């Protein structure tokens, strides 16, 4: 199979494009999508760009019963001079294959799929919004489609890429959020699927999210599933703290997702000579540092927000207000740097962007 | 909404029914299925029996991305005098709602859905096979259908019931299986979704299953996710041991599924006056008892097999051969009792069966 095999069936009916400042996340989709099929013995085949349309599946398809599925999320950005940039997309396809390995899903050819992804975004380039903070969200995903109730890996899969124009994550400017430290529900544990981007990891957090919302918190800080003591992730982002001049983020331990923004921030901080360490960090240690006045900044990192500053943490009735609920200078500089590179406003000294 | 609302659209094309001794599990489906829809504000509505056919879903449907889904599994049995029996179906619908609660899915009305389920099985009664050990497998499930990539509970769902005639779990007679005690991968942990029947719990076990198969084992015995010491489940069944005259099964701890066969066996053993206890049981404790010659029987329990005797356990290079790899007398009597009640060959003193 090569890019030569890609077929393109253009849609006759083009949808109106939304006002980019009025788009709710992930509810508007472009005119086309990418699909390819997998059959055991035949491998991945029939790569095609087709009109965005419903998929038709047998009710016994394994995706509905045993959750064999993986996904990715990345973005295309429009620069001021009208170029379209992707941010480290090869990292997403690498991670997709790592997730697939955990879920016993056959790997894709990363180079070929990169070609298909680029072709799809090129075809939909008018859908990439231009306002600051906006982008075209790219969602590759794989679902198990074999119609069988046997608890075993599927013999057939569909790989799809859908595209959704998204508004700014911070339409009114960056406002640090209030977070509940969850000490009852568990997101993931060593030996589980926490390091994989797979569906079941997300809906399993809805109850904790609802609990957080009830007490006025915007999101959840997850602790480890064993001792409920070590900090793991915030919502569906990685988490960083600046404590006494040093930046700390939880070390990858098998239950934390290896975020691409996380990796990029570690590289930038190292480049800047800012002390930074990946290690275990306990919530009680954080609270002690907070009481000593040493917690200077806290922020989540992910594709959606890039940097989402944390203004307040609530843990077992204890409140930690961070940097007077304002974005800290390091958080701001990291945000400006990464988003600047993504949108082509800053020099990409790291070679992270790919122009279509 | 009441049963009065149920609409039935009969299929014009009836499929040929398979030879019941040649049916692989979960690959053959009957002529009809049940469906109903949920919309926030409207609740569950439009209950209907329709021809078995593919479902059409937007590629952004939340089931494909965040795994918000639950399911159940139960069986209809044909008695020697041609009656159709269901085994404790109300327990399945109760558990479905318990699973839904964990996954932030709106509950169904158990009584109404029981009515729909019975109507569907009645319509398909010719599909219930008659050979000993065969049955009609019933798979109710709910999937999140809102087309949105926001990580939040869906505003729309579909509830479906599909039916599949299944052959005997032990076509050549009951053969105890060889099991690998998994000490690397984790099925579930406290605070997670292990007690819920939700898709992600199943595909997350495929790697451990493959590892077990590579070393000649038929299935996996899961240990707890925290200490990797306490016994939880075997494959997708509960596990029981008879040790020194006493039956032991792991206590429900939030990460173990509350099996309906498990519950029934506990009730039968109590009724018989056999000493039985639900408690934590460590794998090293089991091995010590084994070395002392005290492990008399071991068996998994679940809807598919009812009783699946364990003939050999392999744990970190240590082998435990149980009852000379033969089914034990208690396992056999439990199997005969439960299957006898299910098929109407034994008196149902417990009132567990419901006749259609």
From TrEMBL, chains A, B:
Its EC number is 2.6.1.42. SUPFAM superfamilies: D-aminoacid aminotransferase-like PLP-dependent enzymes (SSF56752). CDD domains: BCAT_beta_family (cd01557). It catalyses: L-leucine + 2-oxoglutarate = 4-methyl-2-oxopentanoate + L-glutamate; L-valine + 2-oxoglutarate = 3-methyl-2-oxobutanoate + L-glutamate; L-isoleucine + 2-oxoglutarate = (S)-3-methyl-2-oxopentanoate + L-glutamate. It holds the Pfam family Aminotran_4. Pathway: Amino-acid biosynthesis; L-leucine biosynthesis; L-leucine from 3-methyl-2-oxobutanoate: step 4/4; Amino-acid biosynthesis; L-valine biosynthesis; L-valine from pyruvate: step 4/4; Amino-acid biosynthesis; L-isoleucine biosynthesis; L-isoleucine from 2-oxobutanoate: step 4/4. One of its GO terms (molecular function) is branched-chain-amino-acid transaminase activity. InterPro entries: Aminotrans_IV, Aminotrans_IV_CS, Aminotransferase-like, B_amino_transII, BCAT-like_C, BCAT-like_N, BCAT_family. Residues 1-20 are annotated as: Disordered. Its cofactor is pyridoxal 5'-phosphate. Keywords: Amino-acid biosynthesis, Aminotransferase, Branched-chain amino acid biosynthesis, Pyridoxal phosphate, Transferase. Belongs to the class-IV pyridoxal-phosphate-dependent aminotransferase family. This is Branched-chain-amino-acid aminotransferase.
């Amino acid at each position: 199979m090569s890019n030569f095999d890609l077929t393109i069936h253009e849609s006759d009916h083009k949808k109106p494009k939304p006002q980019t400042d009025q788009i709710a996340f992930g509810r508007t989709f472009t005119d086309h999508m990418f699909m390819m099929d997998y059959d055991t013995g035949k491998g991945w085949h029939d790569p095609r760009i087709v009109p965005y349309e419903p998929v038709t599946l047998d009710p016994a398809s394994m995706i509905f019963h045993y959750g064999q599925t993986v996904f990715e999320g990345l973005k295309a950005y429009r620069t001021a001079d009208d170029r379209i940039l992707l941010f480290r997309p090869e990292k997403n396809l690498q991670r997709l294959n790592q997730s697939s390995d955990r879920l016993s899903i056959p790997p894709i050819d990363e180079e070929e799929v990169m070609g298909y992804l680029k072709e799809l975004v090129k075809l939909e380039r008018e859908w990439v919004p231009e306002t600051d903070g906006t982008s075209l969200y790219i969602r590759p995903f794989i679902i198990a489609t074999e119609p069988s109730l046997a608890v075993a890996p599927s013999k057939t899969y569909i790989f799809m890429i859908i595209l959704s124009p998204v508004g700014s994550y911070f339409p009114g400017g960056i406002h640090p959020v209030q977070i509940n430290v969850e000490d009852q529900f568990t997101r993931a544990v060593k030996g589980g699927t926490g390091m994989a981007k797979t569906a079941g990891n997300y809906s399993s957090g809805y109850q904790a999210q609802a609990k957080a919302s009830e007490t006025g918190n915007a999101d959840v800080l997850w602790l480890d599933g064993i001792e409920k003591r070590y900090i793991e992730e915030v919502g569906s982002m990685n988490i960083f703290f600046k404590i006494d001049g040093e930046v700390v983020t939880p070390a990858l331990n098998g239950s934390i997702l290896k975020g691409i923004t996380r990796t990029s921030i570690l590289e930038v901080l190292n480049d800047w000579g800012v002390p930074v360490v990946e290690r275990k960090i306990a919530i009680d240690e954080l609270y002690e540092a907070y009481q000593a006045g040493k917690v200077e900044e806290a922020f989540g990192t992910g594709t959606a927000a890039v940097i989402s500053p944390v203004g307040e943490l609530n843990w077992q009735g204890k409140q930690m207000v961070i940097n007077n609920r304002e974005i800290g200078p390091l958080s701001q500089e990291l945000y400006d740097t990464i988003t600047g590179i993504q949108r082509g406003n800053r020099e990409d000294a790291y070679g992270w962007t790919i122009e279509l």
